[in-house]
Each structure stands twice: as C-alpha cells, then as structure tokens.
Give the backbone structure.
Amino acid sequence: MLNSIPDKGRACLDALRYRAITSAYYWGAVGALLVYDVTRHTTFENVSWWLRELRDHTDPDIIIILIGNKSDLRHLIAVPTEDGKAYAEKESLYFMETSALEATNVDNAFAEVLTQIYHIVSRKAVEAGDDAASSAPPSTGERIKVKDDASTMRKLSCCST
C-alpha cells in the first residue's frame, strides 16, 4: 500500500511519523548540541527551524549550544564565525566552533553543555530543597553504628597479597 503513495504523499507520511515520535525523542532532554556545517550556508539557515523544534518540545531551561563544525576548512568557509556568534547571542545560546576532523573543541563543547546542565540542575535542587525545608516537619533520624574492623577491611582489599 505504501508503494502506491505518490512522492508528496510519502513525504507527508514521513512527516507524520516524525511528528509522532518527536515528543518522545525530546522528552526529558536537558541539553542539546545544535550543529551546522561552516562550509555549507544552508545548514546554518536550517538552524532556526531546529531551534524552534527544540524550544517547542523541550523544557524552557534546556541548555543549547550552537556549534559551527568543520572549522579546520578555513578556505571553504561559507558561514563566518561572527554570523554564528551573532545568531547565538540573539537567541541566548552558547556558541563554539569545532573541528571533528582535528578534534578541536569537541571535548570542550560537551564539557560546556554538561557544566551548564549541572548548574541548572543544582540550582533547581537547591530551590526544591528550600521549598521542602520550609514546609516539611522536622525529620527524626535513626543512628546507625558502623563497626570499624581494620583487619576485615584489609581482607576485602583487592590489592592485598
């Protein structure tokens, strides 16, 4: 039956399938790397669509870093660094250029996203803790005794001989 669908119908069907999985795919995302190819301007033009897609289907606090990849191909640049920076600033995104070929800034891009996610999650945990502390009754604890047996610890050591 699918073989009888004309090309436009097939594209429409593919779009419907895509829409059906979108919310499941983005659900729970706390960070995103939005990557374009600095040697192909059309990929930069598509960034606004992908950014809208992210913002429509994710938490408003999602950390998004805009990445211009293939920075090693300076002689083929179609999207100047300044354009990427300006767009990122306008949209309140982090920005970085990378070269996957030379492994330039790739680790830094992931580290930056993870660092920013950590800050957001930590802030939310503190805020939630403040709310819980002000409304929860004082808790009663139970004392736990831990037996300190050094000889047992030596026996369990993986490096003992």
